[in-house]
Amino acid sequence: MFKTANGEEIFVIDSHIALWDASPENQLNIHGEQFINCFYDYHKNLSPAQYLWPKEKFLKYDAETLIHDVFTKGYADMAIFQPVFLTDFYKKPFGDIEKNAELVKMYPGRLIGNGSFDPRDGEQGLEYLEFMAKTYGIKGVKLYTAEWRGSSRGYKLTDPWAERYLAKCEELGIVNIHAHKGPTLTPLDRDAFDVADIDGAASNFPGLNFIVEHCGLPRLEDFCWIATQEKNVYAGLSVAMPFIHTRPRYFAQIISELLYWVGEDRMLFGSDYALWEPGWLIEKFMAFELPEDLKQETGTDLTLAVKRKILGENAARLYGIDIAAQKSLLSQDKLAVSR
Questions:
Q1: Is the pLDDT of residue 97 over 70?
Q2: Are 234 and 15 in contact (CB under 8 A)?
Q3: What is the pTM of this model?
Q4: Residue from 75, 93, 92 nearest 84 by CA
């Protein structure tokens, strides 16, 4: 919970966190090392100096560290795991759904564990999707369309098999589709993260919500034009958020464009932990104001009401969370007591 200077409470849902293992022991090949090195470059270049992690810690951190960073000092009331498997690069999944599920169980009401799928897994993957829905009760999936699988270097959400998986999601009540679109990572291909296929997928599946993680950056304009016409497309702000520190003017341009095109009801805060800790992102975001020239040009403003929506209310709506009831539920749990 973030409290403003005059005591107003802001309910925070970090919609994009991960618990990963990129240790040398878990790297399957050179690509596992390349991938986490690229992650670490993002971390180094966009974080304040006091929040830089040593490389060894960044490779593999424990659950206690995550809980402390996200909830104890990170202001989050709730957080959503967005797992990525990367099984062509790592021996065990980079993001492990089972480990996430253990934490969800340990901290009831605090964490939401999403699943993932890869349409190239065919019928077997469909069965696993159903298993995740029944076993873990997942309400969302994280998709990595540039992930390698054998000789394949990615897929599109409009591929026939991808559409079968999206139809299965709808059938199972998995309504929130978080798709990484935009920033590339070594050695994955930039074009396989292109935001263009969101257009067709969102049109074909109006009953699903497509949360475009990283809002398509650097293809922000493409994303905005798609999201304007597809009302079930949302902007996930992870990766955009840390620019508030290194490039505040660029951040302001991103936010003002999103407010202008997509609107305040379809933007979701995400830290992308452990790339960045949510605490300093939220502090800077709450203190941030759009420059006057951008406000006048786009006719938008980042008011307290807008910040409330971005930090928690919009994600709560997508995941069916009653904030008042949730605040009451969480007020007496072990994390609330320990704060």
A1: yes
A2: no
A3: 0.97
A4: 93
